[in-house]
Amino acid sequence: MGATGSKLEKALGDQFPEGERYFGLENFGNTCYCNSVLQALYFCVPFREQLLEYYGNIKNPGDIEENLLTCLAELFMQISTQKKKTGVIAPKRFVQRVKKENELFRGYMHQDAHEFLNFLLNELVDILEKEANSAKGSKEHSSPSEKIPNGIHVAQANGVRKEPLVTWVHKNFQGILTNETKCLRCETVTARDETFLDLSLDIEQNSSITSCLKNFSSTETLNAEDKFFCDKCCSLQEAQKRMKIKKPPHILVIHLKRFKYMEQLGRYKKLSYRVVFPLELKLTNTMEDADCEYSLFGVVVHVGSGPNHGHYVSLVKSHNHWLFFDDENVEIIDESAVQTSFGSAQEYASNTDHGYILFYESLATNNDH
């Protein structure tokens, strides 16, 4: 532990970023899925800052009931306030809380890092929404003006009550997709918006994130038994359907669907396809408006040939340095090392490190990574 720490400090020397901490996380028996995601989230600077600010605003942390949000905030606080610049921390309380909240993560089986990220972000949103609603509830009880019958109806008429709450988790990760369906008979376009915290993309051999995003937004024809019920024609019609990113998020999280269910095998198979992901990404064809530019700052990598075993590590960019986090171990790496996790052009290659979850930050909000 001390050796890695001092080695990393020596490697960075006087380039060690002021106030930054680089700590490995102890593994509690197959908890690498959790550690790799935590490191990517810790180095998602806007998210970390808002989480620590949230924790700082809690008057008496001892008085509030422990939940996943408080455990995560405590862990990030613990890392950021360490006297040493490097070392190892045991995220024991956080891992125990995760297991308590979700039986899926209780065993010692190999878990899916994307499922964990999804569960974590949704759980944080739920906790923040509940807190906001109970705060709103107590305000309403104490406010006499709210007791006027008309007052309540007016609030609903203006849509105040129905507005979904936008938490700071949403502000970082949430984007909006538009699902457009065009009836080929009357040419009416029906658009339906839906929110997302990450994008799951189908992958192909020897492809790139840009081509995967193009496929995600490609036009699909609905015909035969897939016809679309057009409200204007009042009947089933052939239609064209496509998905577009209407509002891109500040932090774009891309999940590459590397685990595919194979009907003939009756099980999942890992796709080791080579999918190139750039350090700078432009969202073009998916957008309704101008281009949106992103910079890569985190990659959760799945190491191993199959879906039910293997290991997770993460590559993280912090203050223009790339770091490799493998549970307790933290090393500085060259930027070119990121390319080793693109995948393999051949089916059976010796390198089984494959980029699985990518974290991009919008350059409009880039916070000195």
Characterization of this structure:
- The protein is of the alpha+beta class and 369 residues long.
- The chain contains nine helices and 20 strands.
- The chain has helices spanning 2-12, 32-42, 45-56, 68-80, 92-101, 113-142, 149-157, 168-173, 209-216, and strands at residues 22-25, 86-89, 175-183, 189-196, 199-201, 207-208, 220-222, 228-230, 235-237, 239-247, 251-256, 259-262, 267-270, 275-276, 280-283, 292-303, 311-318, 321-326, 329-333, 353-362.
- Strands 5, 11, 15, 16, 17, 18, 19 and 20 form an eight-stranded mixed beta sheet that branches. It has a four-stranded antiparallel beta sheet with strand order 4-3-10-7, with no helix packed on it. Strands 1-2 form a two-stranded parallel sheet.
- The two termini are 26 Å apart.
- Residues 143-161 have low confidence and may be disordered.
What is the average of the pLDDT values? 87
Q: What fraction of residues sit in β-strands? A: 25-35%
Order of helices and strands: HEHHHEHHHHEEEEHEEEEEEEEEEEEEE
Count of strand segments? 20
Detail the poorly predicted runs: 143-161
- Tell me, what's the shape? globular
Helix content: 25-40%
The profile of the biggest β sheet is: 8 strands, mixed
The gyration radius over C-alpha positions equals 23 Å
Going by helix content, strand content and strand pairing, the class is alpha+beta
